[in-house]
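Predict both folds.
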Amino acid sequence: MAETGSAPATRETPWPVGLMSEKIAAWVDRLGQVWVEGEITQWQVRGGHVYGKLKDLGQDATVSFTVWRSVAQRLTSDFAQGDRVIALVKPNFWVKGGSLTVQVFDLSHVGLGELLERLERLRRQLQAEGLFDASRKRQLPFLPGRIGLVTGRDSDAEKDVVRNATLRWPGVQFRIHYAAVQGDRAAGEVAAGIAALDADPEVDVIIVARGGGDFQNLLPFSDELVLRAAAAATTPIVSAIGHEADRPLLDEIADLRASTPTDAAKRVVPDVGEELAGIDQARARMSSRLGQLLAHETDRLAQLRGRPVLSTPERLVDERAEELVRWIARGTELADRAVEDRRRELADLRGRLTALSPRATLERGYGIVQLADGSVLRGTADAPAGTELAISLADGRITATSQG
């Protein structure tokens, strides 16, 4: 056995494990209190003391921590798994167990101002891209055949959505994608869930649900990865994060914001009782309207049947027959009168024509002398001696020769 001391350890004079552990403990103790930043991956309260684990934000490094009751009682905020914190700790090396733990003397959420500023920048960027515009909001289907649900496994949010939706419409079906809803894995898993359900042709609407939480617990639902996935989805998105004071940016991207998971179920699925009552009311209105219409048409038909033209149709025929006889008689009278008038007019014209006719002149003893070419002789100069003439009389023609 090598001699215990502070001489350097060699193969010939190795240190005992206890000596090495004591030196490690001394070195760690000289570090004193330091401020560290990380993410709480475990938070358990036992007997007023808190036992947990703190993970590095950028690499795979984790350390166990303890918050004694006296310190835990002084903390002014609530902490849970997934919170990003700054802690004042003192590292301790446990010689007997060979493990390193840190004792927490102060603990606070990290960078709320910085986080708020970063979220505000992201909000302005997405708003400038038009992702918050009301024109992008899609109408939810009246009765979705299948509802996609992104939520934590065995969470109250899952139970609230499924229970209330089933109560409203017993035949509703779900396709559930379980994801972490807080912590460093949450954003990636929620975004993957949205993308997977959006790619499913049977899913008609997607609900992203979580049962509330403090500001830091809700940060994954303001992560750009989740927001881009929701904006790219062609399936309507319902945000049901369940927090009024700190609304995540997913509420602005989603097609519908529900105040709680229960509210999401009520907004997405119609109530079968209300729909049946609406159908009954519609049937009653239709029956009433149809009854009124039939009654009105029946009254009109009775009024039409009561009119003389329909009650005694032969009366109309008789009246029209008498009128037709009168018109026939009147037409005959007018026709006879017109014929008689035309006859008298014709006789008058015939008399006038006869009086003016050359034949009538011939019958009174006159004659018409014509030359050989048929022209009428109008003077003696046109008929020198020896000219053959034709004389037309009332009863015929004779020829003659002029004597000069």
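Second protein follows, with its predicted structure tokens after the sequence.
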Amino acid sequence: MQGMPRVPQDRIAVLIGTKGATRKSLQKAAGCRSLFIDSETGDVDVQWGEPGSYDPLKALKLPEVIKAIGRGMAPAKAIKLLEDDWFFRLVDIKDFVGKRSNQQRRVRSRIIGSQGKIRKMIESLTGSEITIYGSTVVVVGDEEGLELAVDAVERLASGSEHGPVIKGLEKARKRQKMQSRSLEYIEEKGELQEFDALVPGLAEVAAKRASRRLKASQIDPDDEEDMASALALAEDESVTWEEE
């Protein structure tokens, strides 16, 4: 038997689910032999099969799934943590404002925003899932998105204004897209080189055009010099027109 994090009283029913549906789903997804949940104390224990009959990585991640559900996250979202590229972080609001309940409420409101707008924006810009429960904030997501989301939550808890935090996330997302395009260009260039021997000169022309597309995707529309450079014709380009 392996002990799991204890679940708060008001989250026991959620972890068990209607007629045990959630418990069974977790048991199947994790690959464990059985999952025991004490409906009175909230204690959770898991029994694994013989070595080799289950994924040891899921065995390491299951406590985080239980903890996420216990701290307010919907089971359907928390179960994503069993995937290899999804991770868990917990931010304790008390670390920023202490045990004062009124200050904790203020920080919760700042992270959530009016009608949940701020939380939704952070989730959208980072691809993460955020749940606020009591004095804790649970964040799950991939490696890059998780770090950005946690940083945003901690900055808000520390007193930063919404505008700079959201703007910082937007800039970070733009940088990630540019890096992704650069990687795509490198892969495309590698593929083109394979055809060079079959069609001499084709790879060189295609690579030049791909390079111009990559450069254009990184143009700042507010920079006059960048815009002028992007609109200038290359040696192999021309513009023609005719009257109808």
